[in-house]
From TrEMBL:
<dbReference type="InterPro" id="IPR017927">
    <property type="entry name" value="FAD-bd_FR_type"/>
</dbReference>
<protein>
    <submittedName>
        <fullName>Ferredoxin--NAD(+) reductase</fullName>
    </submittedName>
</protein>
<dbReference type="InterPro" id="IPR050415">
    <property type="entry name" value="MRET"/>
</dbReference>
<feature type="domain" description="FAD-binding FR-type">
    <location>
        <begin position="89"/>
        <end position="190"/>
    </location>
</feature>
<dbReference type="InterPro" id="IPR039261">
    <property type="entry name" value="FNR_nucleotide-bd"/>
</dbReference>
Length: 317
């Protein structure tokens, strides 16, 4: 005998009694009462047929959903935004102190300032002599490694002080007033990370010497490879500096010169770019010299994926 339409059936699911209304299936009742969880939202499964029971009971369980990760989020790493550090430009005044010959065509000029100018190894400064024009130069140390805190030491091309007139636009002589502002440039020494490859052409050794000496104090265990070149082997004035570096453990030092006249046995023939070692992606390369030298080194660094920091030389410096 058929039960009247108003009657309800009873059944037990997972030990819990349920009351089934006419027209409902036992599965719909179990879902509505939260006895079992629905299967909608699972990966690869579409939505099931809609229930004929429209009213939602208070005990209805929430649908279980499994989210699928966005493939792009796992493949593309999040890059940190680039940070630009702007350093304040400081101005100082002083005067030329001494002018000393380092080689047949290299002189050292020392300017004494009234107060110390803050800068890092590899930084450049803008120097203006009284009555002259501004010139961008790289402060360094004496070839023996010495310099006072309020001194700026420069290595410049020239056989004597008179040869520097074309560079500064005025006579260069002890006692002449000088104005300096800086730091400027992007060749600053950055401690940490990979082999340090230092390339210097001619008086570009000034900035490279400052970086190399600082690195031996700050990071004595960091690997350093040094390549130095000049057109004339007699202009390789930096041997006292190289002796100091060797004494501190730097063994990868290469000297090169274009001309063969009076070339020492340890000086290799040809341009210095021919003697740069195979670069690695983890290398940090600093180079100082003329535009053609910097361009050649930059190409080699870019091909290897190495970081490159140029220190350009002022024409004639």
């Amino acid at each position: 005998m058929r039960a009247p339409t108003s009657a309800r059936c009873s059944l037990v699911v997972n030990g819990q009694p349920l009351r089934v209304s006419p027209g409902d299936t036992s599965l719909e009742t179990a879902l509505a009462d939260g006895v079992i969880a629905p299967m909608t939202g699972l990966v690869g499964q579409g939505a099931g047929p809609a229930s004929r029971r429209l009213p939602v009971r208070a005990r209805r369980a929430e649908a279980v959903t499994l989210s699928v990760p966005d493939p792009d989020a796992t493949i593309r790493p999040v890059k940190s935004p680039a940070r630009t550090v702007t350093r304040p430009v400081v101005r100082r005044t002083g005067s030329i102190d001494t002018i000393t010959a380092l080689a047949p065509r290299v002189v050292q000029v020392v300017a004494t300032l009234e107060r110390r100018l803050p800068f890092e190894p590899g930084d450049q400064v803008v120097v203006t002599l009284e009555g002259g024009r501004p010139v961008t130069l790289t402060p360094t140390l004496g070839v023996e490694g010495g310099a006072e805190l309020n001194e700026l030491v420069f290595h410049l091309r020239g056989e004597c002080a008179e040869d520097l007139t074309a560079l500064f636009g005025c006579a260069v002589e002890p006692g002449r007033a000088v104005k300096v502002k800086g730091p400027v440039g992007n060749g600053t020494y950055r401690p940490g990370g990979g082999r340090l490859v230092l390339v210097a052409a001619e008086t570009g050794f000034a900035g490279i010497w400052a970086i190399a000496r600082a690195a031996r104090y700050v990071e004595p265990a960091r690997e350093i490879c040094l390549v130095i070149g000049a057109r004339d082997p007699l202009d390789l004035y930096m041997r006292p500096s190289l002796e100091w570096l060797r004494a501190t453990g730097v063994t990868r030092i290469t000297l090169a010169a274009d001309r063969h006249r009076q070339r020492a046995p340890d000086v290799r023939p040809g341009p210095l770019t021919a003697h740069i070692p195979s670069l690695r992606a983890t290398d940090v390369v600093h180079a100082s010299g003329c535009p053609s030298t910097l361009g050649a080194v930059e190409v080699l660094a870019a091909a290897a994926g190495a970081r490159f920091y140029p220190i350009p030389l002022e024409p004639g410096a």
